[in-house]
Amino acid sequence: MKRIPIGVILATLSVPASATTSLGGAGIVPEESPPNVVIFFTDDQGYGDLSCFGHPTIHTPHLDRMAAEGVKLTQFYVASPVCSPSRAALMTGCYPKRVGMHRHVIFPTYDYGLHTDEVTIADVLAGAGYATGCFGKWHLGHRDGLLPTDQGFETFLGTPYSNDMSQFHRPEGNKYTHSLPFLRDKTIVEWEPDQRLLTRRCTDAAVEFIDANADGPFFVYVPHAMPHIPLYASSEFEGRSPRGLYGDVIEEIDWSVGQVLDALERHGLAENTLVIFTTDNGPWLPFKSHGGSAGPLAGGKGTNLEGGQRVPFIARYPARIPAGTVSRQVATTMDLLPTIAGLAGVGLDSDRPIDGHDIMPLLEDSAGAVSPTEVFLYYTSQGELAGIRRGRWKFRLDTGSLHDLEVDVSEKWNVADKHPELVAELRAEAISGDERIAAAARPVLKVPSPIWDPAKIVRPESAP
């Protein structure tokens, strides 16, 4: 497993230049014990799909409790409207373009993934002595050398990519060829797993990991495969929600959160554990009842409208975060790595710049805390520059539209013609920021040999 040195020079956050920050003193360990960290990262869940974010029929009591006992961010963004680039940004604190992961999602036939030279959240925490486990969907590369256990995690249980990608394994006309793999670490333990049990199996594994590492510290990453289509819920949840199968899936994810929270309390760890819940992009709207809701936001997955990249975010850390906090400041998934590194007392190497910021003052609701994200760049699902947000203003390069997001969260009123100088200024700033990222972009890692040859693996007649 990769390891990074503790106490090295801290990172300079390079885009935008005016928003650079640091994490404090290099190698300084906080007086209190470093927290355990749990991150839930769901797939294709919309801004409006939780009851604490306004959904009228989906019931999410455990997440509602997390919000009541912690902080809810209402202007939280992912760095891409699709899966693999968004996950790369979460893990590395970088815009996907900076780490070469911006060109849409990784399909089963692809031979590349996130470079192991990149420093992930798991690398940071493993280097600080944390136990690290990933339980769910990875989707940052599925060949040997690209899996979670190559990227700072001690153990992995789950699927290497999206649950709808099984068709890429099937030679045309061969109905007996295996499809979706289910892995433990790097070993395929099952082909075509029962997807009704994916949420439950990954939850159980996460709880077992907490039980085994309760002496801590530990990092548990739970990137659930759902509610990406095709949707599946276990028999305990199927048919429970008036929202239909989609609601059943979300309510089972809420159950999953409850199981982890219960495990933390059982071991007396709740006070000193940072638990985060968010999602990788907005809802997949073309699938109607099988897709989610962006609430008041326009658009969904794959778009640069707010519904594609603004997502729900909840964090609970009773030792540091006041209960019932709501922050309306802008923050992003790229902020999680430097924030968590700061809590763990780990410095980040300045020769590998990142784009995130330490947002602990926002989460703690510190007096006078303001977002360190002065500028946020929007990229399309193919990694092309699409827009910029600065303060209350959002400008779209592709449409030429300008919106005041503090007034017009649904992006209904284009006011570009009223602010031509601002439009020109934002356009130039977006292009300049993108050019700086492109000039310093780092490569992906290509791995020529696949772990398995799907054409040689035949599933039994009894497989689903």
Description:
The longest helix is centred in the middle third of the chain and has 22 residues, at 245-266. The protein has a single domain (28-373), classed as Alkaline Phosphatase, subunit A. The protein contains nine helices and 16 strands. It has helices at 61-69, 83-92, 121-127, 198-212, 245-266, 306-309, 336-344, 360-363, 420-439; strands spanning 36-42, 71-77, 112-113, 131-137, 155-159, 181-184, 187-191, 218-222, 273-279, 310-316, 325-332, 375-379, 385-390, 393-396, 402-404, 445-446. With 464 residues, it is an alpha/beta fold. The strands form three sheets. The chain has a ten-stranded mixed beta sheet with strand order 7-6-5-4-8-1-9-10-2-11, with helices on both faces.
Task: Tell me the CATH topology.
Answer: Alkaline Phosphatase, subunit A
Beta-strand level of the residues, as a percent range? 15-25%
Mean pLDDT: 89
Total count of helical runs of at least 4 residues? 9
**Low-pLDDT stretches:** 3-30, 455-464
Shape: globular
What's the number of structural domains? 1
Helix content: 10-25%
Strand neighbour order, sheet with most strands: 7-6-5-4-8-1-9-10-2-11
Q: What's the alpha carbon Rg, rounded to whole Å? A: 21 Å
CATH level 4 superfamily: Alkaline Phosphatase, subunit A
Report the CATH C-level class: Alpha Beta
Quaternary state of the chains: single chain
The helix-and-strand class reads: alpha/beta
| Spatial gap, N to C terminus | 35 Å
Largest sheet: 10 strands, mixed
CATH architecture: 3-Layer(aba) Sandwich
Number of strands: 16
The SSE string, one letter per element, is: EHEHEHEEEEHEHEHEEHHEEEEHE
